[in-house]
Amino acid sequence: MSGRKALLAVVVALAAVAAALSWSGRNGHADRTFRVWQWNIAGNALHHGAVDDGLAEAAVDSIRHREADFVSLNEVCRGQFDRMKELLAARGWPSGPGTFARFAATRAASPGLCGGTGDYGIALFSRDPLGASREYVLPSDGTAEHRRLLCAALRDEPRMKFCTVHITTSNAVRSGVPANVRQLRAVLNVLDGFDAAGQAYLIAGDFNAQPDYARLNAFYAPSASTAANPANTGSHRELDDADRAHCPGYGQWTALGTPGSAPPCGGRAKIDEIFVRESRLAGPYAAVALTVPTSCRGLVRCSDHRALVGTVRLRMP
C-alpha cells in the first residue's frame, strides 16, 4: 500500500470512530449501560431484623452474580443494611469518599420492630461511589410509617441519579385523593424535576401497584400501552414492559402474596418495578424476575417477593 493510500485508510478509520462517538455520545458524554437489582426483602415481617440467618448473604451473592450497578432494597432493617454493606465492601465495592450505600428510615426503632434492633426503611447501593443524596418525605398515609423517596447521585457523574421507593398499600382518601395516589404523584413530581433540570435517573422499588392499575398510567408512556396495560399517559418505560414472552406491557410477577385485582394475564401480581425516562433510552432494555432464594435458615423462602433485575442503556446528560 502506498503512503498516500495508507494515510487515506487512517483518515477513513478515524472518521468512522468519530461517527461512532457522535452516535453514542450526547453533549460530550457517552451512552452508558446500567444493571439495576430490586428486592423487597421482608426484613421485618419474615426475618424480624435478623442479620445471621443467611438473608444478607443471599442478597449479596445475587447482586454480585448479576453484576448489578445499582441496588434497591425495600422493607430492610438497619442491621441488615449494615451487614450487606459490610459484605459488599469486603468484595471490593467502594469504601472511599462518598462510599456506595444510603439508608432512609421510614420507621424509628421500637421494641416490636426489627426485633428491637434498630430503624426500618429502604436502602440503595451503587457499584460506583455515590455523591449527594436526599430523602423526599412522601404524603402521609395515616399510619406509623413515614414513607420516603431516597435518591443519590453518582459522585463522578452527579447528573445521574438512582432512587428507591416503597409506596403504601393504603387507599385511604384525604382531600379526595387516595394515599397511594398522593405518594405516587409526589414521586413523579420529583422525577419530573430531575428531567426538567437535564438530569438522568433510574428508579426502582415496590410500588404496590400492578402495571395495569390506573394510578400508574401517569408513569407509563403511551408507547408502553398494550391490552394488558392500557391508557398510559406518562413519560416512562418499565424495564420489563417489552417482554413479549411474559404478558407484554405488564411483565413478570414479583409478589407471592395476594395480588389485589387479578393480573391481566393470570397468575401472581407484579408490584415491583424499575422505571426509566423514555427520552433517555439509548437502546434495548430488559428485565427478569429471579427465583426467591431458599437458603435463609428457618424459612421456606427468604422473601415474599422475587428480586427484579433490569438492564438498560441510557443517553447520559
Structure description:
It is a single chain. This protein is α+β, with helices and mostly antiparallel strands and 317 residues long. It is built from four helices and 16 strands. The strands form four sheets. Strands 5-6-4-3-16-15 form a six-stranded mixed β-sheet. The protein has a six-stranded mixed β-sheet with strand order 7-8-9-12-14-13, with helices on one face. Strand 3 (32-40), helix 2 (55-65) and strand 4 form a beta-alpha-beta unit. Helix 2 crosses helix 3. Mean pLDDT is 92; it is low at 3-27.
- Pairing-aware structural class of the strands and helices? alpha+beta
Rg is 21 Å
The proportion of residues forming helix, as a percent range, comes to 10-25%
Alpha-carbon distance between the two ends: 43 Å
Overall shape: it is: globular
The helix-strand sequence is HEEEHEHEEEEEEEHEEEEE
DSSP summary, beta strand count: 16
Flag low-confidence runs.
3-27
Compute the number of helices.
Answer: 4
The strand order across the widest sheet is 5-6-4-3-16-15
Strand content: 25-35%
Mean pLDDT: 92
Note the main sheet. Answer: 6 strands, mixed
